[in-house]
Amino acid sequence: TLQIHSTGKGNATVTWTGGEFTADGPFGIQCLYKTNATDIGTLTGSATTGATATLDLNSAIIPRTGDNVFCGVAGELTGSYKVTSPDYLGVD
Questions:
Q1: 69 versus 44: which is more confidently predicted?
Q2: Reported pTM
Q3: Residue 89 and residue 47: Cα distance in Å, rounded?
Q4: How far apart are CA 4 and CA 7, in angstroms?
Q5: By the 8 A CB rule, do 36 and 16 touch?
Q6: Among 58, 60, 68, 73, which is disulfide-ready with 77 (CB 3.0 to 4.6 Å)?
Q7: Are 91 and 6 in contact (CB under 8 A)?
Q8: Distance (Å, rounded) from C-alpha 54 to C-alpha 17?
């Protein structure tokens, strides 16, 4: 579940609950990470970009689940996405 929280002027912060990620860890182990109302980034609306909206993952820290300490305490998501539909997107 993604939740959009308006910060004004058509922009927002985005939180994510229920996202699960599995990554290969050291020694061939599997590492599991899960979001729970995790702040993942910023939605910049069309009014600010002058075109389509963007979602920037601001080095979102995703907590590790499970017991394996070799996986570290969290994983990190980074990236940038352009919203292609709808062409104009703003948040009130």
A1: 44
A2: 0.83
A3: 8
A4: 9
A5: no
A6: 60
A7: yes
A8: 20
